[in-house]
Amino acid sequence: MSQEPIFEVTPGQRQLFFDDVGIAKLEHLTRAMHQPAKKGAVIRPNVDRGETVLQTRSAPAWDPEAGVFKLWMLTSGIHSGTTYAESEDGLHWRKPALRQREVNGSRENNIVTLDPSREWPANAMENVVYDPDDPDPSRRYKGFAHCFTREPMVSPDGIHWRLLDVPPIPSKDESNLSYDRQTRTFIATVKHGGPYGRSVYLCTSTDFEHWTGQELMFHADDLDQMLGRATIARRFTNPLLGQPVLNIPATYNVDIYNMGVFRYEGLYVGLPTVYHRTGLVRPDWDGFNDWDASPQELTAYRKSGNWAGFHHVQLACSRDLRHWQRLGDRQPFLDLSPLGSGAYDLATIIGPSSPVVRDDELWFYYTGLKKYGGPTPRRGVERDQGAICLAVLRRDGFISLDAGERDGVLLTEAFVLKGNSLHVNLDAPRGELRVEVLDQQSRALATSAPLSGDLLDGEVRWSGCSLTGAQGQEVNLRFTLRRGGLYAYWMGE
Questions:
Q1: Which of 37, 284, 378, 407 pairs with 360 at a CA distance of 20 to 30 A?
Q2: Are residues 359 and 413 in the same domain?
Q3: Using the 8-state DSSP alphabet, how is residue 285 labeled?
Q4: pLDDT tens string 299-345
Q5: Confidence class of residue 398 from pLDDT cuts 50, 70 and 90?
Q6: How many domains does the chain divide into?
Q7: With bands split at pLDDT 50, 70 and 90, how would you rate the model's confidence at 397?
């Protein structure tokens, strides 16, 4: 009697290898995590206007009617607030004059605001997403207002906003938002305290007005502390990396600064920003006298103390938003750049909410900062300190199953075959992949010709047979790979 299929291969949906769901057996294959390639800063602060730092907690939203990508940024400098930029290609951005708020006697700026009379941070706007499914066009864009408690807001164009008359979402000063179109669910992750410090809490909504109660979703653990101490030690012994201003081992700590979450091909991907604290000092610390800090900064330090550290972004996955699997041995998915590279992300990478899918690539827009902790950048001297940066990954390119000279075998769990073709995302320019379709007695119903090359959408060709006769049957797929990496497979419509 055949075993009931335990998973479904839906035509058009790619099967990835983040976890073991859908995998019956692996032999001589290893999982490898791949980092996106950094392309540098794409939006920089305008130092001539007094801007020092740009940050974002949003992914660019493609507006099909306007024909542009839209992005919202947190801007620091002579004026602080939320600013707006747009681009046709995602690489070349302009900052149009929105004329919503007066700064230094002029409205010729790109500040976007709910209330021009309110100052930062009360007037901050973050976490904007585009919602093509809302029947009300005045709610096409959705986001959160304010820097701490998050107040849901909506807009027809991403520029003119109004608050919804709904309860706010409690949060500290970090949050992320994404829209899962498959389930029509808004996913908000907010920051509160938890084990080892800052942690990530989850709340969701299907209408952007009624939200579930917050629940602890993701936090640092004992292993993070152990690995973090080793990471901190390597940083302080590497002269090519920027050194935090404090190094006090007794105060080392690792926590989760924030976490973008998004649905990708049937599962949820998490990008936790992991903060490594290298030092924490009390208000009476004598070392403040040696810092190049303004009198106002020293007053603040002697009231509240200070800290220093650095961030990177890791990779995780989940099937239900509540149980998370850490990937890549908790090594960085997005790591800091070395000194002398000309990059902004020397001390801090704050991860994106979700990537932008561009043809066969995933574009990750993230915040890169040159400093974190210690004296703030000196105005007029250290003016160019943070920017919006871009990193690019091949489609499905998070995790691959890799084989060397020895044949590696992947056997899938049984599923009902639907679809007329089989496709793979394969990187094997010097190797090859072969595929067999097996019935429940392990007999081959179809055998492929070998595939080689770097194939982002490689269609499997069958030797002397096709998939037609196996439609509707319970089958397993057996992939045999040599000298290459397999990222995904999927059935054609």
A1: 407
A2: no
A3: -
A4: 989 999 999 999 999 999 999 999 999 999 999 999 999 999 999 99
A5: very high
A6: 2
A7: very high
pLDDT for 292? 81
Q: And the tokens for 377?
A: 């950048």
Please name the amino acid found at residue 234: R
145 and 223 within one domain: yes
For residue 463, count other CB atoms closer than 10 A to its CB.
10
Number of H helices, E strands in the chain: 2, 32
Cα separation, 369 vs 387, whole angstroms: 7
Tell me: do 487 and 348 sit in the same domain.
Answer: no
- CA–CA dist 121, 115 (Å, integer): 12
Inform me whether the pLDDT recorded for 118 exceeds 60.
yes
Tokens of 426: 């394969």
The range of the structural domain enclosing residue 236 comes to 37-396
**Contact (CB, 8 A) for 414 and 427:** no
Supply the pLDDT for residue 382. 66
The residues near 348 (Cβ < 8 Å, ≥ 6 apart) are 310, 311, 336, 367, 368, 369, 371, 372, 386
- pLDDT at position 239 over 70: yes
Q: Mark whether 210 and 79 lie in a shared domain.
A: yes
pTM value is 0.95
- What is the number of alpha carbons within 13 Å of residue 100 lying toward its C-beta? 18
Give residues with Cβ within 8 angstroms of 35, minimum separation 6.
332, 333, 334, 335, 391, 393
The CATH number of the domain where 41 resides is what? 2.115.10.20
